[in-house]
């Protein structure tokens, strides 16, 4: 009983195929004590038979061709037959050099008892070879003990393989769940970033955030167009922060603010002595942007000669610092912004067409503030909070009188003008007070009120309400069609109507 329990206990220890094969060899060595034993299991392709065994007490390992009849193990597996060779010198064909060396180690007087190893379904999963004198081999064959041992081995092998398979599936499942959780968290952080940096719940604001989220996922160049102060640099930074390059540099250069004779040295850098006043080496912005993003603001103001040099850099990602005779490489994504109508400049010959197409692989149109006036209240509260935290104040609410004035203003300077206006108002508001009209200097208040009076209308000129509504509807649709460059799907989404409804209205109102 004790030996049976010890045997059962030893069987519970192996937890993989290799350990279980070692267990089988150890049991054979301890209880049967053959001169040699060899267990062969096919590797994953089935072409090779990976063999492990013992010759005496010395471990051996060799790899044999599974379909090579130059050794008897292949014959036994392929024929699915138990075979005994009383001697392997002249008794069996042995052409395999590695197997011949194994026989020399075993000794000339020994034979081979070879048994295929079937699984529960009868499929052959391996082979066992036992080396010893012929009389002992035949005694083992007649007793059937080795067949029973192999049944124990193959059933335990199936359990081990099933366990390893389940463990692999469990590991893959945990990895997938971690990946899903990571992607979900990354998505949440990206959404939070977009909503905190690009404030607004209007249709144009939501569409802009969606477009940034989509374009941040690739490395194509993006041309950002929009009016001055609309937030083009904010969009560029968000494209960088939401991309895979977020942890690398974001390098911005204002092409309109740098003198033409300096823009080349600013972009490409220079070596000491490259020109008068070059007292040392300077790394250019293209080099600084390596691995990150290069943002060219107001690119429409760049000179034609500089446009040609920039085009070459964008095509090859190679540049040459001033005074250097060696090319340098920089891996960067390029974003460009301008308030200029570049397509018109291309037609006039003021901007290179090939550079325009290189910069405009993707395009974003940043809406003017007047086209998302419903966001003025949210933007105002956002800026008031920002200025309050900066100045250590806790402001109250934005009074209705000031909000009404802001909603009636056209904001030619867009979000930047609203921000500056509220910064002035916060500076003139005491801690804990609400922001009202009295917080604005007279010149700012006059500008807002005059603009509101210009846009005020008592509608006394209207004599046909149906025609007035039709004209206004046609004007709104025509303006939105111009803004979205004829993209009817985006126009329909921005007006919160169905595409079919928009098509019907365009036909009825004769809007192209």
Automatic annotation (TrEMBL):
* SUPFAM superfamilies, per the entry: Homeodomain-like, P-loop containing nucleoside triphosphate hydrolases
- TM regions (residue ranges): none
Q: Would the keyword RNA-binding turn up in this protein's UniProt record?
A: no
Do you know which Gene3D superfamilies this protein is assigned to?
Answer: 1.10.8.60, Homeodomain-like (1.10.10.60), P-loop containing nucleotide triphosphate hydrolases (3.40.50.300)
Query: Keywords assigned by UniProt?
Result: ATP-binding, DNA-binding, Nucleotide-binding, Transcription, Transcription regulation
One Gene Ontology molecular-function label: ATP binding
Sigma-54 factor interaction domain segment(s): 198-427
The record's annotation in Pfam families points to: AAA_lid_14 (PF25601), Sigma54_activat (PF00158)
Fetch the InterPro entries from UniProt.
AAA+_ATPase, AAA_lid_NorR, Homeodomain-like_sf, P-loop_NTPase, Sigma_54_int, Sigma_54_int_dom_ATP-bd_1, Sigma_54_int_dom_ATP-bd_2, Sigma_54_int_dom_CS
Q: Which GO terms describe its biological process?
A: regulation of DNA-templated transcription
Matching entries from PANTHER family are given as: PTS-DEPENDENT DIHYDROXYACETONE KINASE OPERON REGULATORY PROTEIN-RELATED, TRANSCRIPTIONAL REGULATORY PROTEIN
Protein name per its UniProtKB record: AAA family ATPase
């Amino acid at each position: 009983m004790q030996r049976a329990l010890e045997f059962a206990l030893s069987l519970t220890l192996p937890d993989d195929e290799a350990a279980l094969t070692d267990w089988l060899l150890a049991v054979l060595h301890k209880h049967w004590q053959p001169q040699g034993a060899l267990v062969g299991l096919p590797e994953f392709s089935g072409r090779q038979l990976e063999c492990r065994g013992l010759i005496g007490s010395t471990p051996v390992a060799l790899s044999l061709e599974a379909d090579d009849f130059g050794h008897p193990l292949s014959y036994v597996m392929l024929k699915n037959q138990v075979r005994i060779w009383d001697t392997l010198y002249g008794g069996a064909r042995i052409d395999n050099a590695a197997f011949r060396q194994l026989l020399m180690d075993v000794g000339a007087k020994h034979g081979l008892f070879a048994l295929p190893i079937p699984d529960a379904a009868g499929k052959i999963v391996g082979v066992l070879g036992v080396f010893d004198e012929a009389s002992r081999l035949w005694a083992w064959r007649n007793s059937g003990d080795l067949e029973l041992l192999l049944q124990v081995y193959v059933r335990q092998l199936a359990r081990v393989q099933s366990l390893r398979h389940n463990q692999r599936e469990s590991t893959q499942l945990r990895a997938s769940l971690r990946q899903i959780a990571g992607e979900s968290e990354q998505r949440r952080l990206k959404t939070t970033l977009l909503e905190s940096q690009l404030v607004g719940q209007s249709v144009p604001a939501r569409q802009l955030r969606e477009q940034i989220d989509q374009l941040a996922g690739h490395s194509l160049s993006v041309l950002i167009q929009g009016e001055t102060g609309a937030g083009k640099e904010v969009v560029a930074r968000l494209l960088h922060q939401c991309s895979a390059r977020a942890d690398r540099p974001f390098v911005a250069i204002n092409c309109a603010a740098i003198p033409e004779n300096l823009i080349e040295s600013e972009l490409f850098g220079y070596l000491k002595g490259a020109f008068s006043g070059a007292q040392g080496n300077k790394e250019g912005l293209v080099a600084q942007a390596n691995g990150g993003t290069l943002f060219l603001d107001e690119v429409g103001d760049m000179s034609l000669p500089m446009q040609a040099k920039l085009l070459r850099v964008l095509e090859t990602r190679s540049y040459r610092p001033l005074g250097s005779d060696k090319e340098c490489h920089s891996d960067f994504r390029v974003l460009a912004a301008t308030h200029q109508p570049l397509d018109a400049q291309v037609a006039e010959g003021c901007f290179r067409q090939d550079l325009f197409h290189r910069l405009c692989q993707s395009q974003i149109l940043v809406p003017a503030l007047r086209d998302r006036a419903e966001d003025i209240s949210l933007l105002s509260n956002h800026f008031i909070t920002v200025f309050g935290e900066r100045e250590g104040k806790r402001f109250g609410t934005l009074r209705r009188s000031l909000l009404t004035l802001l909603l009636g203003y056209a904001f030619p300077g867009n979000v930047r003008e609203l921000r500056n206006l509220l910064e002035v108002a916060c500076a003139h508001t005491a801690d804990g007070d609400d922001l009202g009209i009295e917080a604005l200097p007279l010149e700012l208040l006059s500008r807002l009120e005059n603009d509101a009076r210009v846009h005020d209308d008592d509608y006394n000129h209207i004599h046909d309400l149906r025609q007035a509504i039709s004209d206004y509807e046609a004007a709104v649709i025509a303006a939105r069609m111009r803004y979205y460059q004829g993209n009817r799907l985006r126009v329909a989404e921005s007006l919160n109507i169905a595409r079919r409804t928009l098509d019907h209205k365009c036909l009825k109102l004769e809007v192209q």
